[in-house]
Sequence to fold (455 residues):
Amino acid sequence: MKDLKVTIPDGILARLEKHAKEHNMSTSDAVTLMLSHMFGSFNTARPAIDPARSQREGARTDPRLDWWREAKFGMFIHWGLYAIPAGKWHGHEIPGIGEWIMYRAEIPVAEYEKLAADFNPVKFDAAEWVGLAKRAGQKYLVLTTKHHDGFCLFKSRHTDYNIVDATPFKRDVVKELAEECKRQGIKMGFYYSQTQDWHHPDGDGNYWDYDATKQNFDSYIHDFVIPQLEELLTQYGPVGLIWFDTPKSITQEQSQDLLDAVYKLQPDCLVCGRLGNGLGDYASAGDNKIPGSRVELDWETPATINDTWGFKTNDPNWKSSEDLIRKLIDIASKGGNYLLNVGPTAEGIIPEPSVKRLEDMGAWLAANGDAVYGTKAGPVQDVAWCRTTAKNGVVYLHVFEWPSDGKITVPGLTAKSATLLATGEKLDISAGGDTVHGPTSAPDPVATVIAIETA
Ligand code: JFZ
Fold:
């Protein structure tokens, strides 16, 4: 903590004060929040799951969510015009997450828009992207159909600012991916930025082109967002979920209107908690945030493999495969889903380091998937060297730190039988069932799963 004297332009200060007021926080907290948002590091004092973006009443027992509860692991795809500048504008490195470059560099609409003429991802292959998700063991896919920059990856009658009408590529990638997901048996979900739209004259967030006092946000919601949702929900077959984001100051009525628009056309389509105002089918944790212990909600952590969502040339901070596999286990052990992001290049290629890590995760899941898919939070929580998940009376013990004598004593568990999940090998248990006897070196140094039937 350090006290700094800074000069904030009036326009930005007014917005910060408005935000602070709406969210019942001090202006100084609003500044901290804005800065941490920009630089991707978040105030650790904030809980991983914000009650305001929580699950609507009744959703916890709603069978519409059953496929999502079974799935546990999904692929997030952030793709759009921002993949062209890839973190640099006029030769300058723009700090922060790649898809925020328009905002961070305050790029005028008239200038940013021109990127569309250069968007020609000739290497895009829907079958390959969906095939990668399959190999990774991911059961659903969520694509940015429209991010905060307003550019649409689908053909829309409500704006020309879309991949079919504004780019030389002219192909509807939402359509191609939706068809491919159907073919390969993966649920397709659509990310849609419902509040922030830096391109639309009535959307939220673009203070450098538009005068906020002259904007009509309600018209943007009703005359643009809802008609676009209608397109997304009628042109591409069954949609698994709509992943709304950054509700900001959207009102209760506006969130409700979006929810009604979705349910009216596709009653089974799930809606992410970031719709705002507590109306979502499931809760969303903060980005890259994992709660400390079990959470009795349907919840999901959206996360990056490096530090950006949208592709950046210069973001080499890749998490290791081991780290990612353990994060998946950690999340499952607390009852959550893991939505792991890839940011394809402007050519349509998923970066090789992402491919490698996803394949490593898929290899681990191919042997140990029973301990993840369809599980609930396990009975043993808050132990550093292991995690537990549970399903059909079996407790899956995921061992991160294998003891050198091979003797595993599980706090609070009495085993009736124990099996190494990956090989099916039966393990001895000592009388009383409190210790499982395994080999003296870790069968899987990343995480060894022992399936335990309890007494
Ligand atoms: C939002 C977007 O602004 C971002 O571009 C990306 O799409 C990400 C998945 O979602 O960013 C957020 C939203 C919420 C938090 C942090 C970043 N949060 O609650 O900590």
Summary: The domain at 53-371 is CATH 3.20.20.80 (TIM Barrel). The longest helix spans residues 217-234.
